[in-house]
Design a protein that fits this description.
Elements (H helix, E strand, L loop, with lengths): L1 H49 E7 L10 E2 L10 E2 L8 E4 L2 E13 L14 E5 L1 E3 L5 E3 L2 E8 L7 E9 L23 E6 L8 E6 L1 E5 L2 E3 L4 E5 L6 E8 L2 E6 L2 E6 L9 E10 L8 E14 L1
Parallel strand pairs: 3-6
Antiparallel strand pairs: 1-20, 2-7, 4-5, 5-6, 5-20, 7-19, 8-19, 9-16, 9-20, 10-11, 10-19, 11-12, 12-15, 13-14, 16-17, 17-18
Length: 300
């Protein structure tokens, strides 16, 4: 009987010990999960605290305080940029901006000039291009646009979402200090999203143009890269200054980084949204770049 009591007491003790161990493990797991949750919450809060929105356009209407038409002949493009959204080349409807290239079916005169004053030849293609020059210009920070194309790539398509230094001397010239030629400092270029339909489908190009120290002398290759994306679905394309680097993101995830290039763009920069026809390949109908929103954020 004495041994039986001892066995019972020992069993009861072991059972209690197991229960205590189990309770301890549950409490420990709960504490760790709470700690991880708190850490994640802090990380989210910390990320939110880093940036503040100082400009956002949701395109409920076309706001001339944010954008103006930019009419210029560059890159030997075969279309003519037209003003005021003529024939739907720049349209705001259903909460989005549409920038288009349109084949109007017959050639007509074009008044676009290149930087040397030469006039664009007659063309059957018209297009839209807007910029935030002298409207919304910012030093560094982060620029983001949510956009999609009407297709995943066709020959001659050349849509773009990009930045240019605010002292650029190309049309429209509206301030006395707009006297610096591309791509010198003050007129530097950063391409956030660019698609060349002659060379790719469901891909985009992102990166900085390297100035070679002379007017019209830029390196398009060494700091830009191509990345996959389903172009006819909406995506967020952004660039941000991270100390001395330029960081390029697709839907918030870093896809590319120009190390040490950020300090080469100390000037205020403005944004450009345009759809170009870059080669002589024929097109019919219209091409569309649809933009849900654009914003600029600054670090707190």
């Amino acid at each position: 009987m004495h041994n039986l009591n001892r066995c019972y007491i020992t069993f009861k003790f072991l059972k209690m010990k197991q229960i205590l161990i189990l309770v301890f493990l549950v409490v420990l797991q709960f504490a760790v999960s709470c700690k991880d949750g708190t850490k994640k919450d802090q990380e989210v809060q910390s990320t939110a605290d880093v940036w503040k929105i100082d400009f956002q356009d949701d395109f409920e209407t076309f706001n001339p305080d944010n954008w103006q038409d930019q009419r210029i002949w560059v890159n030997n493009e075969s279309h003519c940029y037209v003003p005021d959204g003529e024939l739907g080349t720049r349209e705001v409807s259903d909460g989005t901006l549409k920038i288009r290239v349109v084949n109007i079916g017959e050639k007509r005169p074009c008044d676009n000039l290149d930087k040397n004053g030469a006039q664009h030849p007659d063309t059957e293609y018209i297009a839209g291009r807007i910029c935030s020059k002298n409207r919304k210009e910012f030093v560094k920070g982060r620029w983001t646009a949510r956009l999609r194309l009407s297709s995943n790539g066709e020959a001659s398509m050349f849509p773009a979402w990009w930045l240019l230094g605010a002292r650029n001397n190309e049309s429209p010239v509206q301030e006395e200090d707009e006297s610096i030629c591309w791509p010198l400092t003050g007129s530097g270029e950063i391409d956030i999203f660019e698609h060349h339909g002659d060379h790719m489908k469901d891909e985009f190009t992102t990166g900085a143009i390297v100035s070679l120290g002379e007017c019209d002398k830029g390196d398009w290759e060494s700091k830009r890269r191509n990345f996959p994306a389903t172009l006819n679905d909406f995506h967020e394309y952004s660039v941000e200054w991270d100390k001395s680097d330029l960081v390029y993101r697709l839907d918030g995830k870093e896809v590319y980084r120009n190390e040490g290039e950020g300090d080469k763009y100390p000037e205020p920069m403005f944004a450009i949204l345009n759809f170009a026809k870059i080669t002589d390949s024929p097109m019919t109908g219209e091409w569309v770049m649809e933009v849900d929103w654009v914003k600029h954020e600054s670090r707190n």
